[in-house]
């Protein structure tokens, strides 16, 4: 059969279709018309779906793309399947969100919801609302299981808010009516029941009235709870006992160090440079590191990691820089300076320096030092730290059966506690005042600047870029005095002549907690930088604080008793395989609850922040991804940071492209206001989080240049505000500008108006 006859029989006139038939005809010499017809069908389906942008059809058809159609479009679809699916999902998401809200809008218009009165609030209306939502959601599921509507319904919008508002009004009216009947007309008891039940109703926005009453009303719930408790108690006990047994058989805390396989294969030696602050520990460690063929410096802070890179460059070493949020990889680099959490446990090196080893005992971050000491794959490990970590280091090296050499160093400059407290009038250049809250630091800055001094500030919430700039200004003597929190205690090289404690106590969870001897000595030890000062001085503003300082320097430091650890990713996967659990939050809780930690070397780190973040990771079943997100650098007390974190997690789970944060999203605010500047500082942390996620998921967090530009704007703005002495605070009622040292949160005028209003109300009563 000739090719022209096939064209005629199949009625083919399109040149692209002719080319497909011709290719197959030349290669197979087949006269099977059904095969040619099948080829045309495949081509037309794929081609038509693509060119018409019928997204849903493409998405459904995509499971089996046929490689037999050789046209350009079909081959493009097949070869770039993964990328196109992502584009389709993104467009599909927007399309469905609009459709979803339009359906709800039409339904609300259909029932004329704005003109409904209390007489219209009936069981029938409630049922109609719920049934309509089920239809819109296309699901037969029980709407009572909807927790926090925006988490469940991913296409949420303004129309949904209207729907919820209407349903809440209907539900509350019906609930009141039914409770009055249930209590035989006793409105007082009905109101009490209403106040009790409405809490449960608000947790589940679509929970039907009958279900609320039968599930939570005391009349029904007590009996039901007793029945459930009896049935589940024995089952739960048996299950927990079995889980505990399985986990403890597989995870023995006494062999925790064996999980670091590469380090255990190496014959490592460990050197501990031990001494007080300003004894040259880190300097000597950098000297040894620079002579190695390759090596790693592990710092507790980003600023110290940057200093580490500069120290190696001074010694003629090509050194890269890496933190969770930044990276500077230099071609031909043999060394790396990084924050301690970023250690690579799978790359063998010659020398690794672990700075501030006493932080093994820190309840929040100590796990990173434990991980580095146990797992750093280096032939020579160099530790630097204070003497109070020696006994614990000796225990760990004995456990590892690795030789330990201890080199004791003395302080290079004298340190002297002053005999009398100082006053603000006695401040001098190169003084550093240490307070323990952001508010105090900014207020002290304001007080000192009124006396004609130029001031730098450093506190924990300040972005590293700003801290770096403030440190530079103080180092280069552009400013006279430094006001800081205990953020300076971690080895920052600053030309401080005298450290003055504003107080020797700090607020932790709204409680006043005295500083430990170790904290006082670590902070006070920053005074007297070697090469600039012969003597460092430590003082306070009152006699009681000065007495505490003298006592701290006259007693020995308390020993670091145990090294903090958290479960590794390997532990997480073991527990998951034993229990079948994919929720990383539950796996962490299993570890915390069931693993017996009876070691005199290790203890479990504080996992509260970690567990809190896992509450937003329930839908992420990939344990590697969930573990990454659980340890992501976000402060759970930072409201703005947590809002962005939740959004990023949700969009990453949907495999969507995440837009970079923009400073315009904060609104048009005066950032010189203390509270608004705090929001600006939080925004910079959000940018750091975006960077951190970009390095792990570059396909989802693509807009790194935009993020860097927005972050730079925010950093420059904070630096400008701090250096221009423009900071202020506002009255919480009228918004009037107040000086930073104003002792109250509202101005005198607003206070007087409030006071007079209360007095008049009392008089007329």
Topology:
Elements (H helix, E strand, L loop, with lengths): L2 H7 L5 H14 L4 H19 L3 H7 L10 H8 L1 H30 L12 H15 L11 H4 L5 H25 L4 H17 L5 H8 L1 H33 L10 H5 L3 E7 L5 H11 L3 E5 L2 H13 L4 E4 L4 E2 L6 E5 L9 E6 L11 H10 L2 E8 L4 H11 L3 E6 L4 E4 L13 E4 L3 H12 L5 E4 L5 H12 L5 E4 L13 E4 L3 E4 L2 E4 L2 H8 L10 E6 L2 H12 L8 E3 L3 H11 L4 H11 L7 E3 L3 H7 L8 H8 L8 H15 L20 H23 L7 H21 L4 E2 L6 E2 L9 H17 L1
Parallel strand pairs: 1-7, 1-8, 2-5, 2-6, 3-5, 6-7, 9-16, 10-12, 10-13, 11-12, 13-16, 17-18
Antiparallel strand pairs: 3-4, 14-15, 19-20
Helix pairs in contact: 2-3, 4-6, 6-7, 6-9, 7-9, 9-10, 11-12, 12-22, 12-23, 19-28, 20-21, 22-23, 23-24, 26-27, 27-28
Structure description:
The strands form five sheets. The chain has an eight-stranded mixed beta sheet, sandwiched between helices. It is globular. With 765 residues, the protein is α/β, with parallel strands linked by helices. The chain is built from 29 helices and 20 strands. The termini are far apart. The longest helix has 33 residues, at 218-250. 52% of the residues lie in helices and 11% in strands.
List keywords for this structure.
about 775 residues, 8-stranded mixed β-sheet, about 50% helix, globular, about 10% strand, single chain, alpha/beta
Outline:
The chain is built from 29 helices and 20 strands. The chain is of the alpha/beta class. It is globular and about 100 Å long.
């Amino acid at each position: 059969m000739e090719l022209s006859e096939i064209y005629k029989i199949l009625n083919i006139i399109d040149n692209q279709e002719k080319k497909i038939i011709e290719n197959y005809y030349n290669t197979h010499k087949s006269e099977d018309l059904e095969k040619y017809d099948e080829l045309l069908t495949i081509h037309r389906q794929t081609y038509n779906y693509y060119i018409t942008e019928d997204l849903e059809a493409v998405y459904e058809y995509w499971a089996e793309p046929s490689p037999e159609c050789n046209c350009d479009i079909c081959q493009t679809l097949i070869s770039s399947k993964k990328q196109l699916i992502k584009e389709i999902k993104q467009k599909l998401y927007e399309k469905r969100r609009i459709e979803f809200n339009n359906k709800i809008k039409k339904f609300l218009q259909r029932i004329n919801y704005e003109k409904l009165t209390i007489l219209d609030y009936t069981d029938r209306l409630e049922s109609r609302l719920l049934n309509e939502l089920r239809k819109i959601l296309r699901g037969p599921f029980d709407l009572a299981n909807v927790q926090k509507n925006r988490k469940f319904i991913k296409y949420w919008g303004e129309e949904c808010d209207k729907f919820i508002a209407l349903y809440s009004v209907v539900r509350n009216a019906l609930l009141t009516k039914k409770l009055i009947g249930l209590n035989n007309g006793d409105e007082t008891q009905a109101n009490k029941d209403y106040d009790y039940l409405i809490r449960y109703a608000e947790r589940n926005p679509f929970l039907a009235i009958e279900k609320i009453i039968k599930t939570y009303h005391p009349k029904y719930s007590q009996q039901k709870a007793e029945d459930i408790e009896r049935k589940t108690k024995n089952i739960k006990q048996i299950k927990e006992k079995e889980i505990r047994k399985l986990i403890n058989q597989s995870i023995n805390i006494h062999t925790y160090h064996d999980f670091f396989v590469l380090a255990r294969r190496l014959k490592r030696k460990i050197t501990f440079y031990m001494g007080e602050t300003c004894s040259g520990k880190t300097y000597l460690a950098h000297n040894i590191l620079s002579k190695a063929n390759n090596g790693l410096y592990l710092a507790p802070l980003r600023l110290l990691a940057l200093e580490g890179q500069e120290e190696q460059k001074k010694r003629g070493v090509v050194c890269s820089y890496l933190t969770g949020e930044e990276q500077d990889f230099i071609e031909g680099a043999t060394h790396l300076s990084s924050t301690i959490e970023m250690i690579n446990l799978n790359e063998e090196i010659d020398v690794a320096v672990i700075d501030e080893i006493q932080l093994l005992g820190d309840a929040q971050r100590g796990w990173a030092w434990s991980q580095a000491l146990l797992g750093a794959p280096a032939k020579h490990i160099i530790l630097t730290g204070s003497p109070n970590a020696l006994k614990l280091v000796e225990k760990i090296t004995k456990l590892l059966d690795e030789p330990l050499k201890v080199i004791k160093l003395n302080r290079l400059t004298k340190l002297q506690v002053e005999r009398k407290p100082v006053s603000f009038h006695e401040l001098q250049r190169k003084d550093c005042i240490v307070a323990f809250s952001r508010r105090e630091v900014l207020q002290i800055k304001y007080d000192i600047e009124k006396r004609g001094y130029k001031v730098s500030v450093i506190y924990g919430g300040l972005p590293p870029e700003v801290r770096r700039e403030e440190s530079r200004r103080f180092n280069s003597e552009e400013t006279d005095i430094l006001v800081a929190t205990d953020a300076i205690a971690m080895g920052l090289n600053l030309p401080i002549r005298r450290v003055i404690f504003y107080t020797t106590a700090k607020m932790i969870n709204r409680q006043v907690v005295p500083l430990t001897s170790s904290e006082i000595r670590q902070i006070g030890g920053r005074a007297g930088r070697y090469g600039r000062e012969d003597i460092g001085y430590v003082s306070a503003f009152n006699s009681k604080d000065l007495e505490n300082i003298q006592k701290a320097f006259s007693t020995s430091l308390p020993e670091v008793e145990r090294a903090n650890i958290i479960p590794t990713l390997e532990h997480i996967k073991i527990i998951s395989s034993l229990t079948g659990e994919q929720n990383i939050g539950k796996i962490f809780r299993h570890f915390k609850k069931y693993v017996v930690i009876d070691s005199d070397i290790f203890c479990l780190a504080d996992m509260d922040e970690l567990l809190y973040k896992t509450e937003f990771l329930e839908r992420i079943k990939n344990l590697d991804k969930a573990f990454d997100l659980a340890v992501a650098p976000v402060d759970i007390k930072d409201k703005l940071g947590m809002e962005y974190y939740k959004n990023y997690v949700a969009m990453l789970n949907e495999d969507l492209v995440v837009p970079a944060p923009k400073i315009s999203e904060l609104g048009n605010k005066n950032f010189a206001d203390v509270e608004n500047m705090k929001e600006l500082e939080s925004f910079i942390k959000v940018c750091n989080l975006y960077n951190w996620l970009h390095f792990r998921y570059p396909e989802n967090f693509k807009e790194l240049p935009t993020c860097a530009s927005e972050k730079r704007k925010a950093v420059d703005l904070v630096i400008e505000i701090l250096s221009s002495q423009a900071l202020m605070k506002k009255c919480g009622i009228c918004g009037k500008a107040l000086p930073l040292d104003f002792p109250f949160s509202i101005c005198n005028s607003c206070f007087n108006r409030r006071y007079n209003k209360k007095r008049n109300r009392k008089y007329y009563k």
